[in-house]
């Protein structure tokens, strides 16, 4: 039976959970994930895990924050913004996710940011991804393997 090798195109299903068993991602057979080993975007530990797997085989892996795609929590991604800079249409609450405009190299992007603290005159916004800083647990099942042509 064929086994996953470097540069193969692998079709998988997966379930991603946090340590408290909260599911943050589910990819099932109705819309599987297609991964080309060796390409950017797939964490290296997951690529290594897939090597040698066969169709129908399931394995589990735990990625520490620095290994995963969301990384560690960064304090430089916290920003304090005066309350008067917010629209009166927004009622700030801790946990509220906002779409904020951020300029990078002269280009404005919309990015999600979470309100993490309300102060008397300001609001603390966190631009870290909500999964940053968390170990991520994946259960991955190989459905199909194709050679990269």
Quick structural gist:
The chain has 149 residues and is mainly β. It contains 1 helix and 9 strands.
Low-confidence stretches: none
How big a fraction of the residues is strand?
35-45%
> What is Rg?
20 Å
Name the helix and strand elements from N-terminus to C-terminus, one letter apiece: EEEHEEEEEE
Quaternary state of this entry equals: single chain
Q: Biggest β-sheet, characterized? A: 5 strands, antiparallel
Work out the count of structural domains.
Answer: 2
Q: What is the percent of helical residues?
A: under 10%
CATH class of the largest domain: Alpha Beta
CATH topology of the largest domain: Chitinase A, domain 3
Number of strands: 9
Q: Could you report the average pLDDT, rounded to the nearest whole number?
A: 91
User: What distance separates the N and C termini?
Assistant: 20 Å
> Counting H and I runs of at least 4 residues, what is the number of helices?
1
Shape designation: elongated
By CATH, the architecture of the largest domain is named: Roll
Tell me what the structure shows.
This protein is mainly beta and 149 residues long. The chain has 2 domains: 9-70 and 132-146, Chitinase A, domain 3 (Roll), CATH 3.10.50; 75-126, Thrombin, subunit H (Beta Barrel). 5% of the residues lie in helices and 44% in strands. The chain is built from 1 helix and 9 strands; from the N terminus they run E-E-E-H-E-E-E-E-E-E. The strands form 2 sheets. Strands 1, 2, 3, 4 and 9 form a 5-stranded antiparallel beta sheet that branches. A hairpin with a 3-residue loop joins strand 7 and strand 8 (122-126). The longest helix has 7 residues, at 44-50. The radius of gyration is 20 Å and the shape is elongated.
């Amino acid at each position: 039976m064929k086994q996953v090798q470097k540069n193969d195109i692998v079709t998988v299903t997966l379930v991603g959970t946090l340590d408290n068993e909260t599911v943050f991602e589910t990819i099932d057979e109705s819309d599987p994930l297609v991964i080309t080993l060796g390409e950017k975007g797939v964490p290296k530990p997951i690529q290594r895990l897939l090597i040698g797997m066969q169709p129908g085989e399931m394995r589990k892996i735990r990625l520490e924050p620095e290994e995963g795609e969301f990384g560690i929590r960064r304090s430089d991604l916290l920003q304090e913004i005066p309350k008067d800079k917010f629209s009166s249409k927004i009622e700030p609450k801790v946990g509220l996710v906002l779409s904020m405009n951020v300029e990078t190299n002269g280009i404005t992007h919309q990015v999600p940011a979470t309100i993490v603290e309300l102060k008397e005159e300001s609001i603390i916004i966190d631009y870290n991804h909500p999964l940053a800083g968390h170990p991520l647990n994946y259960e991955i099942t190989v459905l199909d393997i194709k050679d990269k042509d």
